[in-house]
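Record pair follows.
FIRST:
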Amino acid sequence: MAHIVGNGAFTYEMNANWAKLPGHIKFGYTHGVEVDAEGYVYIFHTNAPCVVKFDADGNYVDSFGAEFEGGAHGFLLHTEADGQYFYVTDTQRGLAAKLTLKGEKVLEIGTPAESGLYDAERKFIPTDVAVAPNGDIYIADGYGQNWVHRYTAKGEYIASIGGFGHEPGKLRCPHGVSVDTRRGEPELYVADRANHRIQVFSQEGKLRRIIDENMDLPCNFFFRG
């Protein structure tokens, strides 16, 4: 008998044997799943190799990303003018990276020294990445100092949003970030996990609104439509 999970319009059949892993790969914590334009499924997990590629039927195709072992966390597939790219974060090494679909590194962003917010005790531990239509990159320091840092598409530091606190605009574990483009002007959504709320900012970091009704520990975003 099939095992059904979810409810209402969000009902799914669980298939524990879908992913046909080769013998040399064992999943660690699986922090991300993405599907590319050709329908291939990518799993981002904490054991090496950290990115595993499957076809739609769960057959193993390829793997890469051993350098993210132990720290694999945020995982975004973003479509750009010249193709699709992965944006990932590594909590162990304190960095974010942009990769091709074959795992080639295009860009790496480490601790934002320009911000003046970090030293030997105050570590940068990024948990997620978002990319705006203009190419700006937002990196959430969810496990470190509770900031979201904004960069140009080339990885040049622009500004920081948040900082630790309970007040509107402040953050406690900004675990996930995403850019919503469905309402005209893009908006930055931040899963302010330990404050049990979502905060919505302009691209420049101005607080627009707070969503806190029925919020427990929001972690990440997936957009319907």
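SECOND:
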Amino acid sequence: MKLLVDTCVWSLLLRRKYGTVLSAEQQEAVALLREAILAQRVAVVGPVRQEVLSGIKHEAQFQKLLAALEGFPDIPLSRCHFEEAARLFNLCQARGVACGSTDILICAVAIHEEFNVLTVDQGLMRCVEVLRIEGLMA
């Protein structure tokens, strides 16, 4: 199955400082991402690409990250994704779960495009749980 990867997992793979100790959950997420990359099952949504590339202080580092992400296709976003994201946001909010705009967009795309979601972010996990999205990984 295709895999939609949250910013936090990309950051663990591409942006973390060397020597940083990862939790077991984080290690598992990075291993799953590497396996999916080798199997060419990974895609990106534009807002996640933007988040991964944001906040880079040095141009050389930015270019290195840009190159690392270059091979991953973007899922073209359309009105149906944004409308579904708004509907899902309302469902989560009605159940007392706050969701960020990128998190809920990931949920909408995962449902619409039949992707699994890879994350270690507790907020996104709560959204996925409330919405009963199958295929949450990590």
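COMMENT: The chain has one domain: 3-137.
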